[in-house]
Here is the input.
Amino acid sequence: MEELKLIMDGKRLDGRGFDELRPIKIEVGVLKRADGSCYLEMGRNKVMAAVYGPREVHPKHLADPSKAIVRYRYNMAPFSVEERKRPGPDRRSVEISKVSREALETIIMTEMFPRSAVDIFVEILQADAGSRTACLNAASVALVDAGIPMKGIVTSVAVAKVDGQIVLDPMKEEDNYGEADMPFAFVIRNGKIESIALLQMDGNMTRDEVKQGLELAKKGAMEIYQLQREAIMKKYRTEEEEE
Ligand code: CDP
Here is the structure.
């Protein structure tokens, strides 16, 4: 079989350059019953985030007298992937939920809400690689929409090694046939990247490639951050005008 070429004449399969994100669309406050919500598309990923809280903890024994607990559920719809995904949690979604929760816990001011819970649900309607990053971006915006006090915003993007080249925001074909994949989430505070809240890696990269990937991810994250900001401002500006 002929080897699949992922990069030709300096362009990727979808025509992007190495340092380009997929198109992003963000809508804030789309669900009436949630305290905060966000619908987000990142390339062919389509995800919906809903935030509830701070609210009473059920079951009660999980309550922490010193701070709010944060719960995060990453869930793929059975129709979101090519081969039907069996409904319910699996190892992969439990792991993604855990690392995503840990990333968001770093920015939520949980100490302000003892004995309560902040629940974040993210449903993937369509997946196309980088779904955990799309979910984190949506969850972060939904948290802002819910009015949860936060120290910053989390912005997430992956980089990959494809045909020996480090590229930003890999899509499905690059994720499947590439040599490595490295998702990041950053805490952005006062318009600046302050820390790394999530870093995973699948495959192998050299030390230099990791450095190059980090710089590329930072650049991508700043672009996504601007779009998150714009989406939030758009909703609240319109609401103010209507009042
Ligand atoms: O989505 P993300 O890159 O965060 O996670 P992954 O485990 O690297 O999965 C990459 C992609 O594989 C997903 O975005 C889906 O498009 C696909 N996938 C799938 O087709 N079936 C699954 N059960 C899980 C993932």
Summary: Residues 81-82, 85, 92, 127-132, 172, 175, 181 surround cytidine-5'-diphosphate (CB under 6 Å).
